[in-house]
Amino acid sequence: MSEKLTELQNAIVASDVPRMAASMISYAIELESSDIHVESAEYTIRVRFRVDGILRPIIEYPPSLHSALVSRIKIMSNLKIDETRIPQDGRTRITTKDGKDLDLRVSTLPTIYGEKIVMRIQNRSRKIPTLNELGIDDHNLAIIKNAISAPNGIMLTTGPTGSGKTTTLYACLNVLNTPAVNILTIEDPVEIQLDGLNQSQVHPAIGYDFAFGLRTGLRQDPDIIMVGEIRDKETIEVAVEASLTGHLVLSTIHTNSAASTITRLIDMEVATFLITATLNAIIAQRLVRKICPNCREEAVMVPELEQKIRRSIATMNPEERNRLGLADVNQPIKIFHGKGCDACGGTGYHGRVGLFEVMQLDNKLKDLILKKANEHELETAAIAGGMKTLEHDGIEKILQGITTPEEVYTVARATEITVTEKTEKQ
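^ that's the sequence the OP posted. Answer follows.
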């Protein structure tokens, strides 16, 4: 058992609320958690940590200690301790004993059994991973580096909340960050401070939103602009204008795939000729848990799962299949899993890796965009041109023993084209 968990248990037994709060945060950091959930029930208070994207039950304590703990956390994050009827949001900065500089974003929510607290942990001193460390393979990496080395244009990352989009953009900015360029970021919030960047945080309550920040940021003589998110027509219009006037713009947008990003831009009334003129690349991504290296072993694959994987391999671009050594779609397939050990808390997983779908706009895709082709047609043409879907990238990581089919199919849909369709499109 972890010393920090024992310390948390002892603090609960002693009803030492300040030590409870400190031990809870310390233990969450040890487990590399992204969030702490403190939830009220009728007869107990439950604490769960989000580890590798999954909530893990940690401990329970009696309701008699809850109001004091809530007050302690509210004081830490400058919230009103006497206000329990409405949600509140705050933040605080802490430094751990080993020198880690952390931001805690605190959110409270009134429930029928008392206030629930969620604390988002942001490690301000954590190292930004390289693009390779994110799980981007050489094929996709070449497309991304080509997109961000262009003198102007737009590169978009897309995916649900918590899929690592901002981390990918930071990794790109690390590549671009040199004394020869002026890089400006407009974020909500500024998650990681990087030397050499001019980072600004929006404040929508006073009218400082992404569109306003991007428009005024153009007067700061930037070479490269990173916008936290494209949420509306105005923001994408300014981004297009910026790219046409010689700036490289990096941003995120909420869609389900690379192809659906293009249809989303068309829905936002961006002219198709502007999309083809400014869009360098689109990265769709998800995060999946990695198999624990300490307890990894070969797994038995059920026939239904094997058929699903083989169907996915059949929809890959032939060149991609050859690169993976899968020219014969009937050759034996090995998969792995983690049987569970102390190092991974019995889950069989430790850490996460990205699945990536990277679309570059070739002439075939540009013609389809100008004709306002549907999402299916765009995806079919992109795969024929060499794009790997999220599922395809997931299958590759399954065969490499990095993750499991269960993880991949939790976040990636099956690719809905056939080899015949690809051949016809080519």
